[in-house]
Amino acid sequence: MQSCGHNEDGVEAGVEEIFREVLMAPALTLEPQMVTGDHERWDSMANVEILLACEARWGIEFRFAEIDAIRSVGDLFSAIRVARSRR
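== Acyl carrier protein ==
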C-alpha cells in the first residue's frame, strides 16, 4: 500500500510525521483505516498527544464533537481539514 504522505495539502504527510514522533516509530507508514491499538505504543495517552500536536501544527482547535467522531487515521485527516476550513 502507498504511504499517506502523498497529498496536495500536506495533511497526510504531517499527520504521519506526528505519529512517527509520538509513537517513536520512524519507519511507521499510516493507512487511513488504522485505529488505536494498531501500533503497540498507540494508546489513549498517545491519542491526546497526537491531537494536541495536530492542533499546534495547523493552528487549529478541534471541537469536542470532532474529537468524539475520530475513529481512524482517515477520520483524523478529515477532522483536520474541517477545522482548517474554519480559520
